[in-house]
Amino acid sequence: MKNLLLLVVFILSNSFTEFPATKKEYTFKVMSNSYIIINGSSNVNKFGCKVLKPLQTKPLKALITSNYKVDLDGAIRVKVDEFDCENNILNRDLRKTLKAATHPYMTVYFKSLDQIPFTEGEDTINGTIVIELAGTAKEFKIPLSFIKKGNLYQMKGNKSFTFSDFKLLPPKKVGGLIKVKDEFKAIFMLSLQYLE
Predict the structure, then answer these.
(1) What is the domain extent for residue 131?
(2) 18 partner at 20 to 30 Å CA-CA among 33, 42, 82, 124?
């Protein structure tokens, strides 16, 4: 009975995991179409701020642990003054609020996954990230969605924050007229290529 149980566990673990047990560490190239968007809202309307230039990245490393969780080592970084909200006044006030002059970068660090993604198709897994903004780093547990085709992955996630999470005060009036609400959402997508 014990041998049968071990066989079932082995079959299930190999059916739902991407990587064979013979290799524990994997490296992925972060592709140039990866992105970060900041969405916010005001008393007038909603707005989105995108980075139009390619992100600053380094390869993402994944280490499978003995309990089939995944430790991650990787990050994406953008210059705060490269966020484009399609409004010059909003751009200026957002950069001032996020202290771009003294803390020019926003960085998202990828720390871990609670389990290994499925072999093919789509999957959602809880993961741990750290967001560093305006000199403050905060750790968050969020659901991360994965889409896999061949040796390519897309990893997507989002998290809503308040300005106070990062010891910031929202601009009272943007351009003297628009009041920005004390909440914004960071949305990111990593396009990953598995390096053999």
Answers:
(1) 2-195
(2) 33
CA 154 to each of CA 71, 87, 191: distance values in angstroms, whole numbers, following the listed order: 18, 30, 5
Q: Residue 110 and residue 9: Cα distance in Å, rounded?
A: 29
Q: Once rounded to an integer, what is the mean pLDDT over residues 12-38?
A: 69
Name the domain count of the chain.
1
In the Cβ-directed half-sphere of 9, how many Cα atoms lie within 13 Å? 8
Q: What is the CATH number for 134?
A: 2.40.128.110
Looking only at the bridges linking them, the beta strands covering 60-64 and 25-30 are antiparallel
What is the enclosing helix (H) or strand (E) of 96? Answer: helix 88-97
Instruction: Read off the pLDDT of residues 43-100 as tens digits, 9 standing for 90 and up.
Output: 677 778 888 776 788 899 999 988 889 999 999 999 999 999 888 888 888 888 899 9
